[in-house]
Each structure stands twice: as C-alpha cells, then as structure tokens.
Amino acid sequence: MNPQDFDQIRRREGYGAPKTVRFEPLSRSARHTHDKVSFVYVLEGEFILNTADGAPRYRPGETCILDKDTEHAEEAGQDGAVILVARK
C-alpha cells in the first residue's frame, strides 16, 4: 500500500484527516486507550503495537486498525517510526 491508497481507504471508510506521528528510536508510550477506532499507516521505520493479544510489528507500507477502547502501548524499532493515523 502507498500513502495515496491509505488516503482513499480512510476517506471511503469515514476516517477523519490523518495526523503524522513520530516516535523516537526504541521509544515506548505508556499504556492507554483511544475513544475512536484508529487506522494506522507506517511511513518510516518499525511500529510495534503492544496489546493484550500480542505485539505485532509493522513496517513501511503496512497498515493496522486498532479498535476503540483497546488498551495498548505504541513502540518504535531501533530507527524510530513515522506513522499516519486517522480516527473515526
């Protein structure tokens, strides 16, 4: 997938405007939740989404969807990560 495909899908599926989020190398957020569904597209680096179900790793061109109210922590690989995230 490329950024244009991501944009087409997020518009078609009713997600809001995407926000660019940057993560420092090997950083990890505190566990938290969001009150909306998140549609994520990885632009750079390695993005790790830690949930009770595991910690899948996503690389450039890959997407994931995080359901609202899912407790999670975002993590970046050794080179950091840059993602686009759109919510609904």
From TrEMBL:
Pfam families: Cupin_2. Gene3D superfamilies: Jelly Rolls (2.60.120.10). SUPFAM superfamilies: RmlC-like cupins. Residues 21-83 form the Cupin type-2 domain. Signal peptide: none annotated. This is Cupin domain-containing protein. It comes from Thalassobacter stenotrophicus DSM 16310.
